[in-house]
Amino acid sequence: MWGLFPLFFPLLEPAGAGEVLAHRMLWSFVVVAVVLAVLRRRRWAGELLRQPRKLALVAVAAAVISINWGVYIWAVNSGHVVEASLGYFINPLVTIAMGVLLLKERLRPAQWAAVGVGLASVLVLTVGYGRPPWISLILAFSFATYGLMKKKVNLGGVESLAAETAIQFLPALGYLLWLTAHGDSTFTSEGPGHTALLASTGIVTALPLVCFGAAAIRVPLSTLGLLQYLAPVFQFLCGVLYFHEAMPPERWAGFALVWLALILLTADSLRTARRSAHLRAALIEAAEPPAPEPPAAGTTPAAPRVEA
User: Fold this and answer.
1) Cβ–Cβ under 8 Å, residues 136 and 84
2) Helix (H, G, I), strand (E, B), or coil: what is residue 110?
3) Are 7 and 242 in contact (CB under 8 A)?
4) Closest CA to 28 of 172, 150, 148
5) Which of 7, 177, 204, 246 is the most buried (most CB within 10 A)?
6) Residues 169-173: contacts with CB within 8 Å, 24+ apart?
7) Contact at 8 Å (CB) between 172 and 179?
8) What is the pLDDT of residues 72-123, one digit of tens each?
9) pTM recorded for the entire structure
């Protein structure tokens, strides 16, 4: 679903990126509020309001995901689908770099190599585009920052989205009312089909997140990480095969370096996960008491002695 977003947002024209973003914020809040009401999850909101630090982190997460959504919608509707897909290809590399710089994490040699190759790809693409790939970099850094905030807040997927969209709700509603007052809103002026599509942005936003949350508790983490690469792959294919965006040789070279970095990163993650699994199995086996030896042939096991 995430990979097919480039096919959805052009359907919302002639609404501009700002209007689409505001509707996405507003209707996402409506959808998750209904979901939480059905599930009867209410206690988390009171607990969050009593923790100002967590609330501030949620506000930062809401701000950076708003930037991410807005830039992505504008990029897709402006013919930059391939560059948008690049942002999600390099996002894991940016996340690793942020872990080193902000959380003081230590990298393995393969991870350093992947980050180095990723930096080289950005330089090659800068030459190819004649400018830094700003769309890709904004998407990658905003989503990596969003992930960092989510990690620190430690809320459930639906609850977290509800808190973020609750913060976005009033600014989004105010902007839409302002557009309506100035006669620039397309919500009611382009027919019922257009109105339904704008309202469906809430389901389009929430449904992949709900599916992701359901998968996260059923699928091994290493598999989940690999599956997440499908979204930018589908976006890239949409840009090249459906929208026929240009891919000159230098751009192919830059993408090839990004894919090489991701191969290094994935291989290292799988190797580390396999090694951890073997170590865990060895520790469990070592902790188990040895099985009692069977009695020798022709002997009768001694009866247990019972003391008074």
Assistant:
1) yes
2) helix
3) yes
4) 172
5) 204
6) 169/25, 169/26, 169/29, 171/22, 171/25, 172/21, 172/22, 172/23, 172/25, 172/26, 173/22, 173/26
7) no
8) 999 999 999 999 999 999 988 888 888 878 777 788 888 888 888 988 998 8
9) 0.84
